[in-house]
Amino acid sequence: MGPRPDPDAAPLWAWARWVDSKGEAHTRPDRRYPGFRNQYDGLELLHLRVDESRVLCTDFDQYHCVINRWPCAPLDAGTWPPDEYDRWLDEHWDDPAEKKRLQYRENAIVDPAHLPDRWIQACVWTIAPHDVVDIRPACGKPDTMVSHG
Fold first, then answer.
1. Strands of 109-110's sheet, edge to edge?
2. In whole angstroms, what is the distance from residue 116 CA to residue 58 CA?
3. What is the distance, to the nearest Å, from the Cα of residue 145 to the centroid of all Cα atoms in its chain?
4. Alpha-carbon span 53 to 126, nearest angstrom
5. Residue 57, class by beta-carbon neighbours within 10 Å (0-12 exposed, 13-18 middle, 19+ buried)?
6. DSSP assignment, residue 111?
7. Cα–Cα distance, 17 to 25 (Å, whole number)
8. In angstroms, rounded to a whole number, what is the distance separating the alpha carbons of residues 61 and 122?
9. Residue 148 · residue 46 · CB < 8 Å
10. What are phi and psi of 147, to 5 degrees?
11. How many CB atoms lie within 10 A of CB 66?
C-alpha cells in the first residue's frame, strides 16, 4: 500500500481471506455462511481484484497486537506450549517501540502473493472502477443473485 494520497484519506478495509467454522480458508465469502446471517442485509458485497502494490495485507489476529501496542509473537506461537508462549510474552512485553515495529512487520504483515490459511484483512487507499469484478447482495442464496459485472 503506497503513501496516503490525501491528508484526510482513510484506508478502505476488505477481507482477503476468511476461515469458516470448519477451519477451511476461502478467498470468496459464502454468503450462506451462518456467521454472515442477518448482519449484512441490504448491503452490497464488492468482489475486488487489486494490484498487490496497492494493498497491505495483515493477519487479522496478529493486528490486534499492533493496535494495542502489544508484542507480536511469531505466527507459529499458537502451536507452542502455553508456558512457552507466556514466557515469550513476559520477555517481550516491555520491548521498545522500534523492536515491536519489527515484530509487526515480521509477524502481522502478509505477502498478498502467499496468503496463509488464516483470517487476512486487506487495506487499500482507493478503489478504481477496474478493480471491481462483481457486485452482489451481501447475503442470500447465490442462485437468486444477479451479477452486475
1. 25-26, 12-19, 120-124, 56-59, 109-110
2. 10
3. 25
4. 12
5. buried
6. -
7. 6
8. 13
9. no
10. -75, 135
11. 19
The single residue listed with the C-alpha cell 520477555 is 91
Q: Which residues contact 98 (CB under 8 A, 6 or more apart)?
A: none
DSSP for 73-105, written as a single string: --GGGGGS-HHHHHHHHHHHTT--HHHHHHHHH
**15: nearest Cα among 52, 37, 44, 45:** 45
C-alpha cell at 55: 494493498
Q: How far apart are CA 137 and CA 46, in angstroms?
A: 9
Question: Which three-class secondary structure state does DSSP give residue 57?
Answer: strand
Predicted local confidence at residue 115, as pLDDT: 85
User: What pLDDT does 31 receive?
Assistant: 65
Question: What CA–CA distance (Å, rounded) separates 13 from 123?
Answer: 5
C-alpha grid cell, residue 22: 470448519
User: Residue 128 carries which DSSP code?
Assistant: -
> What stretches in the chain show pLDDT beneath 50?
143-149
- For residue 148, what is its C-alpha cell? 452486475
